[in-house]
Design a protein that fits this description.
This protein is of the alpha+beta class and 139 residues long. 37% of the residues lie in helices and 17% in strands. The protein is built from 4 helices and 6 strands, in the order H-E-E-E-H-E-E-E-H-H.
């Protein structure tokens, strides 16, 4: 996002909409969703070799592979609507890049992630302290 683009409340709203959407669409645990904001000077973003001079926001998301095209399409579509609403952003200024990674190329909570759909068994196999810590996130 451009430096100073969002109000102090908007990042929280954006984080919540991305988190809830990802959870609802993929059934992945809420604790699997991380949102970080990086502000850049507007004159450091270029498209077609020219400064991007309109209001804009980039969303880069890494998700585990194994979900069908319909699920990915719903996820990206709902995130687009939610982010534009939360940020008061014209849809033309939104750029979303969703990257799929193999679960065995990802570590969270100190453990390799499960394939999509195997989260409950993965969570149950975690050490008790890791489960407790993960379960309290977002509360």
């Amino acid at each position: 996002r451009s430096r100073g683009r969002l109000t102090t409340e908007q990042p929280l709203r954006i984080a919540r909409v991305i988190t809830s959407t990802h959870h609802e669409v993929t059934a992945a645990p809420l604790a699997f969703v991380r949102v970080a904001f990086e502000e850049v000077a507007s004159e450091t973003v270029f498209v077609a070799g020219a400064p991007l001079d309109h209001d804009h926001m980039f969303v880069h998301g890494s998700i585990r592979d194994g979900r069908d095209a319909g699920t990915r399409a719903e996820l990206i579509s709902r995130i687009a609507v939610g982010v534009c609403d939360a940020a008061h952003l014209d849809r033309r200024g939104l750029w979303i890049y969703l990257i799929e990674l193999s679960a065995n190329n990802m570590v969270e909570f100190g453990h390799e992630l499960p394939v999509a759909g195997e989260e409950a068994a993965w969570r149950d196999a975690l050490p008790a302290a890791a489960r407790a810590w993960m379960d309290q996130l977002g509360s």
